[in-house]
Specification:
The complex is a heterodimer of chains A (330) and B (258). Chain A is mainly alpha-helical and 330 residues long. Chain A is built from 13 helices and two strands, in the order ααααααααααββααα. In chain A, helix 6 packs antiparallel against helix 10. Chain B has a single domain, classed as Ferritin, CATH 1.20.1260.10. Chain B is 62% helix and 0% strand. The chains are: A mainly alpha (330), B mainly alpha (258). At the A-B interface, helix 3, helix 4, helix 7, helix 12 and helix 13 of A face helix 1, helix 2, helix 3, helix 6 and helix 7 of B. The complex binds fe (ii) ion (3 copies). The site of one fe (ii) ion has 6 residues of chain A, from loops.
């Protein structure tokens, strides 16, 4: 998920492919076959997937930060353990996705460096702050909920390792979503203060979550090849509409108000939401979200301060290896 | 409006269980502070794993302490509504994370103890404690393995990692003696076969620690002066800050359910 908001095309990249092989490749895709790491694939397919999977991986890792912000302050031991486990899951997703990206030929180090240097992106949703405990509920309910909408179709993605990663990840994301909803439900059934906290979190997260699905269809012409390659199966607006339709009754059940007074239900039952503020979206993508700098700074700090640990592990492994060979030679 | 601290009737068994619950919570909390900031993603996973084990232990122990006490306290009241002087954990476990070497050294000293401790406690006449011990023993064995491996990697890694690891060992050593201390209230439980005498674990603990420290090319400090006080609520300055963060929600919104 998290990557649809980031689509940009390398269609302008020039490559010369063996036309026969390209045709055979497309035929396999059309026949719903899975492409595996050792199979021939067009360079642009490899590149598109590397970008998408690594951005997804970065999002899982950066996504640990807003929620990690509440682990030490979680209001009960049960919530504390559940939140720590959830953030750990996200880290596991990141590792899993980096491994999937590595099957396409880039190393995790390269991919992580591209994120730390700002060259490669992560989902802009994580550039918003978690101000209260209710934000933890709202993220699980809405952000993980939107992630699931995006990721379920990816379980059928043409690239085998990515599709398999998504199947496993989706199971955990839907657990996160239910857990988040349950936090919201507890708040919504709680004191006036808790209810207000829940409403405020919904007010702040609603629009950024809708932006997670990416620019409106008429503004994004980049999906053609992804669709042809069966990486993408639904348009941004289709997925966004599905999400809104699924979420409106949930908000109603919670007794919370979606911050869109103009929203109406059409004759087919779809909830028509108001115009999204795409200026905000572009600003956050450009680095001007409330937390862009903090998030990158936190990841860079962890990376830099961890350098001596990684070096020590590498040095020790090398010493051990040379001792082993020396012993074997004796 | 802030929630006031509760009072706890610390019978010997309640106090005994609370002390171990506080150990688990405080160390689990410290490990959870790393989440998202570890030197590598694998360590984010590993420290969260250990933290989750400890939080799980804490919850079972608090639940049992509340049950034994038989008032209307529960795991959350015991964790969130006792102040720093009511906390009973080992001083070692409240020490700040510092760098990764310090975190792993703290883990190593404690896991080398808790691994032996929980294994011995499986024979407790108290069936609840014996059951908690059986689960905790497996977890502690993993914590010991993980932290030992890091002690060796860091000690025998680079010059910098060696220096940091040695500094951590030197700084934390004085907090290890408290693990073996027994007071009158525990003596009775030991005699009744409910608790074990930690003194009986000391030789084996020291052997494990010395072996790993040696393999790590590190040295154990010659200074054998040991700090104590955690078991009776006399803590280092660090615990108060930990608790003010841990307890902030429960203190700010008295009586709310989360
Ligand atoms: Fe995700
Ligand atoms: Fe995830
Ligand atoms: Fe998730």
């Amino acid at each position: 998920m998290y990557t649809q908001a980031l689509n940009s095309s390398d269609g302008e990249d020039r490559f010369v492919e063996d036309a026969t092989r390209a045709a055979a490749f497309q035929a396999r895709i059309d026949a719903d076959e899975r492409i595996e790491p050792n199979d021939w694939m067009p360079a642009a397919y490899r590149k598109t997937l590397t970008r998408q999977i690594s951005q997804h991986a970065h999002s899982e890792i950066v996504g640990m930060l807003p929620e990690g912000n509440w682990i030490t302050r979680a209001p009960s031991l049960r919530r504390k353990a559940a939140l720590l486990a959830k953030v750990q899951d996200e880290c596991g997703h990141g590792l899993y996705l980096y491994a999937a990206a590595e099957t396409l030929g880039s190393s995790r180090e390269e991919l992580v460096d591209a994120m730390l240097s700002g060259k490669s992106r992560y989902s802009s949703i994580f550039n918003y702050p978690t101000l209260t405990w209710a934000d933890i509920g709202a993220i699980g309910w809405l952000v993980d909920g939107a992630a699931i909408m995006n990721q379920i179709p990816l379980c059928r993605c043409s690239y085998g390792p990515y599709a398999r990663a998504m199947i496993r990840v989706c199971k955990e994301e839907s657990f996160h979503q239910r857990q988040g909803f349950e936090i919201m439900l507890t708040l919504a059934r709680g004191t006036e203060e808790q209810k207000a906290m829940a409403q405020n979190a919904l007010d702040r997260w609603w629009w950024p979550v809708l932006m997670m699905f990416g620019p409106p269809d008429q503004a994004s012409q980049h999906s053609d090849t992804s669709t042809k390659w069966k990486i993408k199966r639904f348009s941004n607006d289709e997925l966004r509409q599905k999400f809104v339709d699924a979420t409106v009754p949930q908000a109603e059940f919670l007794g919370l108000t979606i911050p869109d007074p103009g929203m109406t239900q059409d004759s087919e039952g779809h909830w028509r939401y108001s115009e999204i503020d795409w200026t905000e979206f572009k600003q956050v993508l450009a680095g001007n979200g409330p937390c862009n700098r903090d998030r990158l700074a936190a990841r860079r700090k962890a990376h830099e301060e961890g350098a001596w640990v990684r070096e020590a592990a590498a040095a020790y492994a090398a010493k051990r290896e040379s001792r082993r060979t020396a012993q074997a030679a004796e | 409006m802030t929630a006031a601290s509760i009072t706890v009737s610390e019978t010997p068994l309640v106090l005994y269980v609370l002390r171990r619950a506080d150990d688990a919570l405080v160390l689990g909390h410290r490990l959870s502070e790393w989440c998202g900031h570890a030197p590598m993603m694998e360590e984010d996973m590993a420290m969260a794993n250990m933290g989750l084990d400890l939080l799980g232990q804490a919850r079972e122990l608090y639940g049992y302490a509340a049950k034994v006490e038989g008032k209307d306290n529960d795991e959350d009241k015991l964790a969130y509504l006792r102040d720093v002087r009511q906390y009973r954990n080992l001083l070692l476990l409240e020490q700040p994370n510092g760098d990764f070497a310090r975190t792993m050294t703290r883990q190593f000293f404690y896991a080398a103890f808790s691994d032996l401790y929980w294994r011995a406690m499986m024979a407790s006449r108290d069936t609840t404690l014996a059951a908690i011990a059986a689960k905790s023993e497996k977890e502690s064995a993993y914590h010991l393995r993980h932290s030992s491996e890091w002690m060796v990697r860091l000690g025998d890694g680079t010059e910098e990692s060696h220096r940091r690891a040695q500094l951590a060992v030197d700084d934390l050593w004085a907090f290890t003696g408290e693990m073996f201390a027994v007071d009158d209230s525990e003596r009775g439980l030991i005699d009744a076969g409910i608790a074990i005498d930690p003194e009986s674990l000391r030789t084996q603990w020291l052997a494990t620690v010395a072996r790993v420290i040696d393999e790590a090319t590190l040295k154990l400090p010659a200074n054998d002066w040991m700090q104590k006080g955690g078991r009776i609520g006399q803590h280092t300055e660090h615990l108060g800050h930990l608790l003010s963060e841990l307890q902030s929600m429960q203190r700010t919104f008295p009586g709310a359910t989360w």
